[in-house]
Amino acid sequence: MVGRQTSGVAMVQGVIGNQDVIGNGDVIDEGVIDEGVVSNDGSRARPGPLTGRTALVTGATSGIGRAVVLRLAAAGAQVVATGRDAAALTELDAAARAAGSVPGQVTGHPADLTDPGHLERLVTAVRTRTGRLDLLVHSAGAFHRAELAGAPLADLDRSYQVNLRAPYALTQALLADLEAAGRDAGRDAVGDVPRRDAVGDVVFVNSSQGLTAGAGTSQYAATKHGLRAVADSLRAELSGSAIRICTIYPGRTATPMQERVAALEGQPYDPTHLMRPEDVADLVVAVVSLPGRTEVPEVVMRPTIRR
Ligand SMILES: NC(=O)c1ccc[n+]([C@@H]2O[C@H](COP(=O)([O-])OP(=O)(O)OC[C@H]3O[C@@H](n4cnc5c(N)ncnc54)[C@H](OP(=O)(O)O)[C@@H]3O)[C@@H](O)[C@H]2O)c1
Question: Residue whose CA is closest, atom 23 of ligand 1?
Answer without folding.
Answer: 59
